């Protein structure tokens, strides 16, 4: 059964590649979330991200890459938790969203 063994080795290699690639992309998502939270003046909570979506998508050049959507939590006041999102296409960050934040505006005069 050398054919079966070859297929098994190729499959295990593909799984190992996918796992290592996912770790690398996840680290890029954490760094992007950390930098963007710092730029927005909010705190990244738990210093981590969680993948919520994984699917193939074409980039601007027409090549198929994996689109990964990661969620994270941040706080704008220090005592709340809000959800944010980082979207990566391949290893490139294409979208960062910290969601809607309440702004306290002064009351208008009557």
Structural class by secondary-structure content? alpha+beta
The gross shape turns out to be elongated
Distance between the termini: 86 Å
Q: How many helix segments?
A: 1
Low-confidence stretches: none
Strands side by side in the biggest sheet? 1-2-3-4
Approximate helicity band: 25-40%
Radius of gyration: 20 Å
Strand content: 35-45%
> Quick one: how many beta strands?
4
The helix-strand sequence is HEEEE
Largest beta sheet, briefly? 4 strands, antiparallel
Domain count: 1
Write down the overall mean pLDDT: 87
Structure description:
The longest helix is centred in the first third of the chain and has 39 residues, at 2-40. Helix content is 35%, strand content 38%. The protein is elongated and about 60 Å long. The protein has a 4-stranded antiparallel β-sheet with strand order 1-2-3-4, covered by helices on one side. The mean pLDDT is 87. It has one domain. By secondary structure, it is an alpha+beta fold.
Chain-wise SSE layout:
Elements: H1 2-40, E1 43-58, E2 64-75, E3 82-89, E4 92-97
Antiparallel strand pairs: 1-2, 2-3, 3-4
Q: Which tags fit this structure?
A:
single chain; 110 residues; alpha+beta; four-stranded antiparallel β-sheet; 4 strands
Provide a brief overview of the structure.
With 110 residues, this protein is α+β, with helices and mostly antiparallel strands. It has one helix and four strands, in the order αββββ.
């Amino acid at each position: 059964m050398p054919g079966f063994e070859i297929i098994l080795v190729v499959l295990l290699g593909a799984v190992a590649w996918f796992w290592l690639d996912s770790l690398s992309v996840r680290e890029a998502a954490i760094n992007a979330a950390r930098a963007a939270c710092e730029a927005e003046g909010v705190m990244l909570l738990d210093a981590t991200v969680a993948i919520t979506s994984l699917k193939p998508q074409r980039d601007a050049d027409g090549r198929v890459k994996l689109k990964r959507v990661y969620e994270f939590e941040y706080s704008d006041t220090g005592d709340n938790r809000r959800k944010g999102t980082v979207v990566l296409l391949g290893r490139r960050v294409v979208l960062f969203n910290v969601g809607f934040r309440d702004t306290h505006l002064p009351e208008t005069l009557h």
